[in-house]
Write a structure and sequence with these properties.
7 helices, alpha+beta, 8-stranded antiparallel beta sheet, 343 residues
C-alpha cells in the first residue's frame, strides 16, 4: 500500500530557518532546520502516516538507502566519507577503544560506506572534488598565494595537504573571490582555508547534481537540495565546523585524484530523467509531476517525493516492492516528482 512517510528533522546550526518547514507546511520555530531524514537510520527514523505513527522500520525492516532534504545558510564542514572496508575497520577500532556511539569525538557511527548524490532544489553552491594541480596552482597564484602554489607544485596534492594542515598562520584574503571571503569570515583561523581552493567551486542550478563516491572531499556552502545516500552517518571532517575534526583520518582515506566532471550526468528514459549514481545500492530519477500516471510494480522499495515546485506542498511516500500506484495529477502545473529506489 502506498503510504505517507513522515521525516525526522535535524536542527543543526548551519540550517535554514524557513526552507524545510515551508516546503512541507510545518510550523516553524526559532531553531534552524538543517535536514529532514527519510529512512530507518536509528539516529533519526521516519514514521508512517502520522507524526506519531508506526516506525517505517517496523514495516520495511532496516533500509540501505537514506534520503534527506537539506537546507544550509552557512557552510557545512569540509568532509569525506569512507569505503565500506574503511568503515568496518574504523567502526571496529572505535568500538574496541570504548568510544560511545554518542561521544562527539566518535567518527565511525556504523560499519557502512556513505556514497551520496546531492541534487539542487535551489541554486546550490558547493566545493566538490579536487581540481587538477595545474588549475589549482593558477588559482593560488591569482589569490596571491605564491608560497602555497610553490608547495603544491613541488609536493603534489598529498604533500600539500600535509603541509597546509600543519600551518599556524592564515593566508591573505585580499584577492580571493566572494565564496572564499565568506568561508574566511565564518572560519577566520581554520587551516582548511588553504585546502578549499584546490577543490572545484560549483554553483548547481535546480535539478543539477553532484555525485560523491567514497573519498570525495567536499563542502556544501549554501542552498537547498536532496541528498540520497547509503544509510550511514559516517562523516570524517577536517574543517569549517564546530564538530569533531580528525585531520589524520581524513588524510588517510581521502581520494586526491583530480575529479574531471564534478557535475553528475543524466540520461532520459521515457519521461524520466535518471541520475548517474555513485552507488549500486540506490538510484534516482525525476519527472514532471503532470507526467505521472501509473508507476509500475518493481522488486525494489521506492520513495516518491512530490509535487515539488511553485505553490506545491509535497509529501514523501513509500511504494513497497511488488506494488504499483496510480497518481492523480494536474496538467500544466510544471512541478516535479522524484523517485528514489533502493536497489
Amino acid at each position: 500500500m502506498f503510504r505517507r512517510v513522515i521525516g525526522a528533522p535535524q536542527h543543526y546550526d548551519w540550517g535554514d530557518p524557513t526552507f524545510i518547514p515551508e516546503l512541507f507546511q510545518l510550523p516553524s520555530n526559532s531553531q534552524p532546520w538543517a535536514e529532514m531524514w527519510f529512512g530507518t537510520h536509528p539516529a533519526a527514523p521516519s514514521r508512517l502516516d502520522t507524526a506519531d505513527g508506526k516506525l517505517l522500520s517496523a514495516e520495511i525492516g532496516e533500509m540501505t538507502m537514506l534520503v534527506k532534504v537539506l537546507a544550509c545558510t552557512s557552510p557545512l564542514s569540509l568532509q569525506t566519507h569512507p569505503t565500506r572496508q574503511q568503515a568496518e575497520r574504523g567502526f571496529a577500532r572505535e568500538n574496541a577503544a570504548g568510544i560511545a556511539l554518542t561521544d562527539p569525538k566518535r567518527v565511525y557511527k556504523d560499519p557502512s560506506d556513505k556514497p551520496e548524490l546531492l541534487i539542487a532544489l535551489t541554486e546550490f553552491e558547493a566545493l566538490c572534488g579536487f581540481d587538477t594541480i595545474e588549475a589549482s596552482i593558477e588559482r593560488l597564484q591569482q589569490f596571491g598565494w605564491n608560497e602555497e602554489a610553490d608547495v603544491l607544485d613541488q609536493n603534489g596534492i598529498d604533500g600539500y595537504l600535509l603541509w597546509a594542515f600543519d600551518q599556524r598562520t592564515t593566508p591573505s584574503m585580499n584577492a580571493v573571490p566572494g565564496w572564499m571571503s565568506r568561508l574566511s569570515d565564518a572560519y577566520p583561523t581554520d587551516r582548511a582555508l588553504r585546502v578549499a581552493p584546490l577543490l572545484h567551486h560549483i554553483v548547481l542550478q535546480p535539478g543539477q547534481a553532484i555525485s560523491l563516491p567514497a573519498g570525495n572531499l567536499h563542502a556544501y556552502l549554501h542552498g537547498a537540495g536532496i541528498e540520497v545516500m547509503a544509510s550511514s552517518d559516517n562523516v570524517v571532517r577536517a574543517g569549517f565546523t564546530s564538530k569533531h575534526v580528525d585531520v589524520a583520518e581524513l588524510l588517510r582515506i581521502v581520494d586526491t585524484s583530480p575529479l574531471e566532471h564534478p557535475i553528475a550526468t543524466t540520461t532520459l528514459k521515457d519521461h524520466w530523467t535518471e541520475y548517474s549514481s555513485p552507488s549500486k545500492t540506490f538510484s534516482v530519477a525525476s519527472t514532471s509531476w503532470e507526467n505521472l500516471s501509473t508507476v509500475e510494480a518493481s522488486n525494489a522499495h521506492r520513495f516518491i517525493l512530490g509535487p515539488v515546485g511553485n505553490d506545491a506542498t509535497p509529501d514523501m511516500a513509500w511504494l513497497p516492492a511488488g506494488e504499483s500506484h496510480v497518481f492523480t495529477t494536474v496538467p500544466g502545473t510544471h512541478n516535479v516528482a522524484w523517485m528514489f529506489t533502493q536497489n
